[in-house]
Amino acid sequence: MVGVRRLEILGGVAVAGLLASLTLVLADLGFAPLAALRTLPAANVDVIPATSALFSFTSLGLVFEGIFLTAALLVALASLSRPSDEKGAAVFFGLLLLATLGMTLAAIAADLIFLLLAVEVVGISTYLLVGYPRRDPRGLEAAMKFYIVGALSTALSFFGASLLFGAYGSTNLVVLSQATGTVGYPALALAGYGLLIAGLGFKLTLVPFHAWAVDVYDGAPTDVTAFLAGGSKKVGLVAFFLLFIGPVSLVVVRPLTCVGGVCPTPFDFAPTLQLALGVVAVVTMTVGNVLALLQREMKRMLAYSSISQAGYMLLGIAVGTAPAIAGATFQVLGHVFMKSGAFLVVAAVAGLGVGPLIDDWRGLGQRRPILATAFALMLLSLAGIPLTVGFLSKFVLFSAAVEAQGYFVWLAVAGVLNSALSVFYYARVLKVMYVDPSPEQVPAPPALPLGGIGYARAAAIAIAVVAIVALGVDPQPVLGGLQSAANHFVLTGP
Amino acid sequence: MTAIPPVDFLALSAILLGIGLFGILTRRNFILLLISIEIAMNAAILNFVVFAAYSGTGGGIGGQAVAVVLVGLAATEVAVGLAIVLALNRVRGSINVAEATTLRQ
Amino acid sequence: MILEEAAFVALGGVAIATALLALLVRELVHTILWVAVFFVDLAAIYFLLEAPFLGVLQLGVYAGAVTILLLFGVMVTRKRIFSREAATGIGPVPLALALLVIVLVGTAASVVPSSAQPIRPYDVTDLSSTLFVTDGGWLLLLGLTMMGALAGAIYLVREGRE
Question: Which residue segments constitute the domains of chain B, with CATH numbers given?
Answer without folding.
Answer: 6-90 (1.10.287.3510)
